[in-house]
Amino acid sequence: MKKILIFGRSCSGKSSTASLLGKKLHLPVFHMDKLFWLPEWVERPKPDMAIDVEKILATHDEWVIDGNYKKVALESRIRAADLIIILNFNPLVCTFRALKRRLIHHNKTRPDMGEGCNEKFDIGFVKFIWNYHKRNLIHTEKVLSQYPEKTILKFKNQRELDFWVNSL
Fold this sequence. Notes:
With 168 residues, the chain is an alpha/beta fold. The protein is built from 8 helices and 7 strands.
């Protein structure tokens, strides 16, 4: 496991898991959110971001990359990965985590987020969390089905994920 991709619903713990695996396995970690968001929640153009992702893939023999971004070098990331992790946690749990994260990081930018993107919680973000399955997961799983040789681990809750991480 030297190239790990992590997909999942917002607030499922993708970035936390990536950071934990990076420390535990001594791998560099790249957060897609950090590559995508400019200050004040301005989106970078996806082609520019794809160039950055392709550079990471070309210049690093080891990595953990977290984030969905189905329109940003998705197949390149999948082809390069040794292990793909999908965090398919309950949307209610993720909504609670989003609210908790908003309270913890009030008027601050998380370390895994683009600079100047203070934590927010609004109805649009809640809808984003709840629509993950139809917006991202179905597409990602369709693409993954084209790579049957890939090792894919799916976790439905934090307990399952923690058990696996602790077994490493």
